[in-house]
Each structure stands twice: as structure tokens, then as C-alpha cells.
Design goal:
five-stranded mixed β-sheet, globular, mainly beta, 22-stranded antiparallel beta barrel, 33 strands
């Protein structure tokens, strides 16, 4: 097995030696019905991305660094979990405390895991107590596509977006009738079942999907002898399984020429086993839900108004031992009114956002509710070879007062193929309920006087696109002040998040190829230590091809060494992994899907004390008439 440096070097050399495909291939060709109203709309066959501006925008005009992952790509690679999908993306680091369903942290551009905002169909989803999104409990079966915005986005979305935004779009309806069935089985008694139907007629669109994921898992905790003496015996050599039941639904109805009303629903109920002792099968249940109603009205030819009303829930129940249970529940009620106006020069965005967050459970917080009122202005324009994006947002938070953030982006296409772009952004993150109001049980409690964490980001990039080939290179420098750390928590630290991202895409000799690498310097400026679980180097290569009824591909991914703790005492070695997949369409509407992960059976670590899965194989059958 080559070491991780060999894998990365091979990946990068392979990428540089090949011609490249357009970066716009990362975006989607969609119709208006495919996009959640209030975020973006597109004419039929127009390529758009939506999260970077909250308005529809051509992919080749977006100034921000955006990654779009289509459902077709997820199915083609036969990934098992959302964490698997995210971990090999540029600018993303992921660490999991165990196997499928275990608590996971997602770091965008080296920022804290609570600095990555999770949206589902435009709705904020996550825990108000920990401040994180529960990415590990979101099933792939609900996802139509994923958009990742790398870099601060508080000027568009407010708190929690210091590192960026990950938005998940659930499955939507389309004209006709499109049923789909899937069943699969693999290593560790892993089984997945799902059924869906999507369709539409005239101006009606609908979609409904249900499914369940099951795995017996593996022994996800390593036997670390020194932990036994200091923490007690928390090692149990059993399998740590995961199960998840889920559903998603949507419906929309158009009226007049450009008006529409719609509904989006999502719910999942998961259970993850873990080791807390050697006499009881400890477990966590994780329930996530979101629902939203929207109405879009074309007030005039140049003015579109969109109203969205919804709620999201994140519920965690922890049962480490008999008679011992704790619950942490978060509910976010949300309302937004967005107005998009076409101007003689560019377009104007005027929006109002409201979020009410309530927490409940077994912990007695002195304050269990907060509200945020926010106003947003934005202007973007393309002027000959110049593009400009300006955003200004004002958030009034009932916990700490007001915060204003801004964004200025500029791009210049100095030849038909070459574009230089840059931006300056400010961002913030509100303290969590745990950090503010955790009761003092003898070890210190929360600190109600905490200030928001603040960030200033500067980045510059270069894109090349000749219609067949493309490259994107980005340098960023993000400085975070008043970083909350320690216990009792305090605004003690400053962090420097500096890095370079490189993405290349190509087609050569019948293969679709993509390669990426990023170099990250994420440090605590007070101590000089590297931030925990964030490797300095990471890279990937993906290649696939079609031959008759077969489609197959290979993936390489690798990370350099990391430290597991803030004090940099525990070093985790780098690693390189190889995966492969194949599809065989044995009938027009039927295909077999195969994935082999960690082909070389690499033993590696992403979190100290926790094991990772060895070589696995999964085989599924999909019925999807088109």
C-alpha cells in the first residue's frame, strides 16, 4: 500500500497531465420547478447555481467558490453516506467518532464545525445547543443535489456561516410519472431500501420518497488502555450499528404565468450505537425534520416576491446506561420575504429573515429561546467583462444585540477563457445555548456575556475555461477573532485560516476525470498550535467511463497528518484510500450498482480512539424508468 504522500502525488501528477472540462459542468441544468422558490429560478435548460447569491445565477458568472454535487453523481459513485460524499471535496475536512451515524464534524476551509451552516431547501437545520448540523443522520435517498459555498456567507445567511454553507435540495417533481425502487445489501449486514414517485402534469409537480438504511456496523472504538484508568472502562468489543428511517415529499402548483405555491417536507429517524461502558449497549437517537411553505408572485415583469414559512427540528436522545438518559431538542421557526428586482443595470435583492430558536430537554437552561430579525440588501451586475456582487446584512439577535456583515466580490474576464476574481467578506457566529447557558454543576457553566465570534476573509482566484477544459485556483485568508474556547467558555482565541484550493476537470480517452487538492494552514494564533483534526494537505482524483451497458470508475483520496487535540499532543497519521464502483444496465429500466470502498483495506484514524471501516462491498439493484 503506498503511503498518503504517494497517493496524493500520483493524483496530482495525473491531473496536471490531462486536458480539462469546463467548471460549469459542476452546475445543474434545471427547470423552475426544480428549485426551491425564494432561492432561485431558472428558465428551462438554463444552468444555474443558487446558494452563492440567493438568486439564480449562471455557474460561469458566480464569483464565490461553489461546488455542486448532482444526484446522478451520488448514485453513480454508489456512496453510502453524506459524510462519504463530503469528505473528498476541496476545502472540506470531515472527522467521525466511529462508523455510519456516529457524531461527525464538518470543517469548511478549516473553520470550526459550528461554522458550517446547514440548509435543507432553504431552511436552517441544526442544533442550537451544540451549534452543529447533524450531517451524519441525513440520508442520501432524500437528496436531489448539494451545493457547497466555500468561504464566509454571513452577509447572505447570518450566523454560523464563517466557513461557508452546505445546502441540500430534496427531491422534486417533474413532468410525467417517474417511479423508482432500490434495494441493496453489503458488508457488515448493510441494507438499504427505498421507493419513490415523482411526476407532474400541466403546472402541478409532486414527489414522494421513503426509505430505510440499516447496518450492523463494526467495532467502532479502539481499545486504548490508558483510557480505562483515567475514564473508566468505556470499551466494548461489539458491533456499533446504525439504522435510519426517512421520508421526503414536495408539491407545487403554478398559477397565472409565473406564480407558484409549494410545500417541502423531510423527516428522518436514526439510531446510532456507541460504547460508553462494557455492560450496556449505549445509543443515540437522532431525529431531523424540516417543513416549508412558499409562495412566489411575479408582481411585475421586473419584480418577483417570494414568501417562505417553515420550521425545522433537531432532536437528540442519549442513553449511555440503564436509567441514564439526556435529551437535547432544537426547534427553529422561520420566515423570509425576498424581493428580486431587475434593474437597468444588474439586479437588486431586498429580503427580511426571521428565525426563532427554542431549545428543550433534560438540561435546565436559564434561557431557552432567542429570536433573530434580519434585513438584507444585495446588488449584482455583469458589465461587459466585469462582474460585481455586493451584499449587506443586519442581524438583530435577542441574545447579544445587533451585528452587521458585508460582502464585496469582483470578477474580470480579461480573455474569453481567463477570469480573475476576488472578494472581501465579514462574518460572525452567535454563541450556542450550551456556551451561554449551560448550568453550573460544579465544573463551571456557560457564560452569558459571551460575544459573537467574528471573521474577516479575503480571497483571490483564477479560472480558466475554454469551453472544453477548466481549472480553478483560489487563495483565501480568513482571520477569526473572539473565538470561543475553554470551559467555562470565553472569547479567548484568534485563528488564522489560510489556504489554497485547486480544482481541475477533464475528459480524455473516454474518461471523465476530476482532480483536486488543497493546502490549509489552520492555526490558533494565541498558542501557535494547529487546529484539531484539520490536515494541512488533502487531495482526490475521480475517473469514470462508460462502455456499452457498463459504467465504472475509480476514486483516490488522501489526507496528510493531523492533530486530534488543541494542544497538539496526539498526532494522527496521514492516509490514502482507493475506492471503485461499477454499474451494469441489464435492461432499459434496470441496473445493478456495485461499490467497493477502501479497496486496500487501509487501517487509518480520523479521530483518536475510534476505528474506521475496512474494506467493504455493497451491491444494489435500481429500477428507474425514464
Amino acid at each position: 500500500m503506498p503511503n498518503h504522500r504517494t497517493v496524493l502525488a500520483t493524483a496530482l501528477c495525473s491531473a496536471f497531465s490531462l486536458s480539462l472540462v469546463p467548471l460549469s459542468a459542476a452546475a445543474e441544468t434545471v427547470s423552475a420547478q426544480d428549485l426551491p422558490v425564494g432561492l432561485a429560478y431558472a428558465s428551462i435548460a438554463e444552468t444555474v447555481v443558487v446558494t452563492a447569491t440567493r438568486q439564480r445565477q449562471r455557474a460561469d458568472e458566480v464569483i464565490a467558490s461553489v461546488e455542486v454535487i448532482e444526484r446522478e453523481e451520488i448514485e453513480r459513485a454508489a456512496h453510502s453516506t453524506l459524510i462519504d460524499v463530503l469528505r473528498s471535496r476541496p476545502g472540506v475536512r470531515v472527522a467521525s467518532n466511529g462508523g455510519p451515524g456516529a457524531n461527525a464534524s464538518v470543517f469548511l476551509r478549516g473553520a470550526e464545525s459550528r461554522h458550517a451552516l446547514l440548509l435543507i431547501d432553504g431552511m436552517r437545520v441544526g442544533s442550537g445547543t451544540s451549534g452543529q448540523g447533524t450531517f451524519e443522520a441525513i440520508p442520501l435517498g432524500i437528496i436531489d443535489r448539494i451545493e457547497i459555498v466555500r468561504g464566509p456567507a454571513s452577509a447572505l445567511y447570518g450566523s454560523e456561516a464563517i466557513g461557508g454553507v452546505i445546502q441540500i435540495f430534496t427531491r422534486k417533481g417533474e413532468a410525467g410519472f417517474h417511479p423508482e425502487l432500490f434495494a441493496g445489501y453489503g458488508s457488515n449486514d448493510t441494507a438499504r431500501l427505498s421507493a419513490s414517485a415523482a411526476g407532474g402534469e400541466n403546472r402541478l409537480r409532486y414527489s414522494f420518497a421513503v426509505g430505510q438504511d440499516r447496518t450492523r456496523g463494526f467495532n467502532a472504538k479502539r481499545d486504548v488502555p490508558q483510557w480505562r484508568s483515567s475514564w473508566g472502562d468505556s470499551y466494548d468489543p461489539d458491533r456499533d450499528g446504525f439504522r435510519n428511517d426517512w421520508m421526503t415529499a414536495s408539491a407545487s402548483l403554478g398559477f397565472r404565468d409565473d406564480d407558484e405555491v409549494g410545500l417541502n417536507l423531510y423527516h428522518s429517524d436514526g439510531r446510532n450505537d456507541y460504547d460508553a461502558n462494557d455492560f450496556y449497549d449505549s445509543y443515540l437517537t437522532k431525529r431531523i425534520a424540516s417543513s416549508g411553505l412558499y409562495m412566489r408572485n411575479a408582481i411585475s415583469a421586473s419584480w418577483t416576491s417570494t414568501v417562505r414559512l417553515g420550521t425545522s427540528e433537531d432532536r437528540l436522545r442519549n442513553k449511555p446506561a440503564p436509567g441514564d438518559v439526556s435529551r437535547f431538542n432544537t426547534r427553529q421557526n422561520q420566515f423570509s420575504w425576498q424581493n428580486d428586482l431587475a434593474l437597468p443595470l444588474g439586479s437588486l435583492l431586498i429580503a427580511y429573515d426571521y428565525v426563532q430558536t427554542r431549545v428543550s430537554g433534560t438540561t435546565d437552561y436559564s434561557t431557552d429561546k432567542r429570536t433573530v430579525h434580519a434585513g438584507l440588501l444585495g446588488w449584482s451586475a455583469d458589465i461587459d467583462d466585469h462582474s460585481v456582487q455586493v451584499n449587506l446584512r443586519y442581524d438583530d439577535n435577542s441574545q447579544f444585540g445587533s451585528k452587521t456583515t458585508g460582502h464585496l466580490g469582483y470578477a474580470y474576464r480579461f480573455t474569453p477563457q481567463w477570469t480573475v476574481l476576488g472578494s472581501v467578506s465579514t462574518a460572525f457566529n452567535a454563541p450556542t445555548f450550551n456556551q451561554l447557558y449551560w448550568p453550573d454543576t460544579g465544573f463551571g457553566g456557560g457564560s452569558p456575556d459571551l460575544k459573537p465570534e467574528k471573521a474577516l476573509n479575503r480571497e483571490i482566484g483564477l479560472r480558466w475555461n475554454d469551453g472544453l477544459n477548466g481549472v480553478e485556483l483560489t487563495y483565501y485568508n480568513n482571520r477569526v477573532r473572539d473565538l470561543i474556547s475553554g470551559w467555562p467558555p470565553a472569547n479567548l482565541d484568534r485563528a488564522k485560516l489560510e489556504g489554497v484550493e485547486l480544482v481541475l476537470r477533464t475528459q480524455v480517452a473516454g474518461f471523465d476525470l476530476e482532480a483536486g487538492a488543497d493546502w490549509l494552514n489552520a492555526r490558533n494564533q494565541e498558542t501557535g498550535n494547529r487546529l484539531a483534526r484539520r490536515a494541512r494537505h488533502a487531495g482526490y482524483v475521480r475517473a469514470d467511463t462508460t462502455s456499452g451497458a457498463w459504467r465504472w470508475g475509480v476514486e483516490l483520496e488522501g489526507q496528510g497528518a493531523r492533530y486530534d487535540d488543541a494542544a497538539n499532543r496526539y498526532r494522527l497519521s496521514g492516509f490514502g484510500l482507493v475506492h471503485a464502483y461499477a454499474h451494469y444496465a441489464f435492461a432499459p429500466d434496470w441496473r445493478v450498482e456495485l461499490r467497493a470502498s477502501n479497496l486496500l483495506d487501509k487501517d487509518y484514524t480520523v479521530a483518536r480512539g475510534y476505528a474506521t471501516e475496512g474494506r467493504t462491498v455493497f451491491v444494489g439493484v435500481r429500477y428507474a424508468p425514464r
